[in-house]
Amino acid sequence: MSASNVESPIDSSVFARPFAIHCVDSYTYMGLSGPADYLGLKPEVVGYIVHQAHSQVVAELQDAGIDYDKLNSALVPKSGRHEVAFIFDSTQAEDEFRYGYSHAEKWIPVLKSHGPSKTAVSAGDVLELPDAVVWEEFEKRLVGGADFPRLPRHLYYVVHMTNLSSGQLENMHLALSEESKGYLGHVDCTTWNSLKLGLYLPQVALRSGDVIITSTDDEGTANLPGYPFEESGFRILGVAEEHYYLLLSHRMDNGIPAWAADDSSIALTALSGRRHSAATTNLIIDPRRVQYLNEKHAPSLKQALLDGLSEDDLAEAIKEKFATGLVYNLRFKAGARDGAPVPELDALLYSVQVEFPDEMGEVKRYQVGLKYEAGTHTSEVVTFY
Question: What are phi and psi of 331, to 5 degrees?
């Protein structure tokens, strides 16, 4: 369903029925927010569009034997898992005119043999950053490429993947080093770094076991770049572009507040039918919740140097990170007690990715779980991990 063919009245009950949406991408995909703004669509209509698209995607994946819920690990950041940019020298590709394909011939078999069974893969050139900034970031962060060539930025080709364990990362690095003369090394992109400012990478695949999910064009053609996934034993499943990039696309945090604000406003619209950005929410922490957090999430709070803070100071410290934080895990949970429905216990829930340095200055990533009151645009912190 597209923004242009939605008519009122809509079924507003979609916001009050149990649902779980991993993420909604309005960060790099403007296919919903752009038309919504141009057409002046009401927030509840925008939210309804997301829910209708979500229902269609879940059903389509289920027909293909894929459980949407199990794609969470590929699309939502996870503690202890890595997001990694594998860096290639495009001048070393076997086919200089199809260097993306040439690199794909190397990384796809490695992904099949050594990579995570659930992962989102994006690929493309480094853009916009000054060459010197790219070189500086590589000098600090590129693993396995101490003698990398100083090339113009657009000659570095990046394949970015999510949800890698440390062991999978090491195995993929070793295999790529053996198989590809153009492979330079990898950069950990689990937390923000300056290189991300130049990584505007289109997603080329969402892996679910032996299935590669890609977008399709208007004629239903999947895998438009023609990458050799099937040669490595993958089966390709195509999903319509407007659904794929809205609901099945991993968002790389490029660190741009305006993008994050628009992105979170669409996410919270899908959550509640009201359009507000996460950065403008009234963030609170119940005093009793502080004790719970310090008991149940003590390691995370201590590592982030947030332990011992009052509820107001803790809320303020977390809220400061919402300017660039990305929203995940949009859910409606029906209230119940002793097996009986209790509507007053119904809850809208979501999470925001935040980053804090530890005592050594190393930045770590956390997920803040929140309970949302749409009428007052208030978010209550419930977890920090």
Answer: -145, 150
The H-or-E segment that residue 129 falls in is none
Neighbours of 139 (CB within 10 A): 11
Token pair for residue 339? 């097996």
Cα separation, 14 vs 10, in Å, equals 9
Q: Identify the burial level of 61 via C-beta atoms within 10 angstroms of its C-beta, where 0-12 means exposed, 13-18 middle and 19 or more buried.
A: buried
Question: pLDDT tens digit string along 236-248?
Answer: 999 999 999 999 9
Per the CB < 8 A criterion, the answer to whether 187 and 135 are in contact is: no
Any residues with CB less than 8 A from the CB of 182 and at least 6 apart, and which?
88, 89, 90, 91, 92, 93, 102, 103, 106, 157
Residue with tokens 């689990």: 190
Torsion of CA 138, 142, 145, 151, to 10 degrees: -30
Copy the structure tokens of residue 258. 């305006």
Q: Tens digits of per-residue pLDDT, 77-124? A: 999 999 999 999 999 999 989 999 999 999 999 999 999 999 999 999
Nearest to 269, CA basis, from 58, 7, 31, 14: 14
